[in-house]
Amino acid sequence: MIEDILMSKQKLSVEYLDSKKEDIFKTIPELEKEDGFDQKSSWHIYDVWKHTEVALSNSRFDFEERLALLLHDIGKPFS
After folding, report:
1. How far apart are CA 77 and CA 79, in angstroms?
2. Rounded Cα distance, 49 and 45, in Å
3. What are phi and psi of 72, to 5 degrees?
4. Dihedral sign of CA atoms 60, 2, 5, 18 in order
5. Which end of the chain is more exposed for a tag (fewer CB within 10 A), N or C?
6. Which pLDDT tens digit goes with each residue over 29-39?
7. What is the DSSP letter of 42?
8. Residue 25 Cα distances to 33, 41, 62, 76, angstroms
9. 4 CB contacts (<8 Å, ≥6 apart)?
10. d(CA 27, CA 30)
11. 31: burial class by Cβ within 10 Å (0-12, 13-18, 19+)?
């Protein structure tokens, strides 16, 4: 399911990813904790999930890159 979502479009949009977040969270429940999680940093203007969506929306059409971006902050809410 994750590969289908990540590779469904040449260019992912934040809106598309937001519409798929429940499916993403069902597949990788740890990611749900990112939604609304404040990064408490002047360097970050978004919560962790929105930051991930923006990063993905700027990615190349490459599954490994997109998967890395999806998972790159997965531990932040737990630390």
Report:
1. 6
2. 11
3. -60, -25
4. negative
5. C
6. 999 999 999 88
7. T
8. 9, 24, 21, 16
9. none
10. 9
11. buried
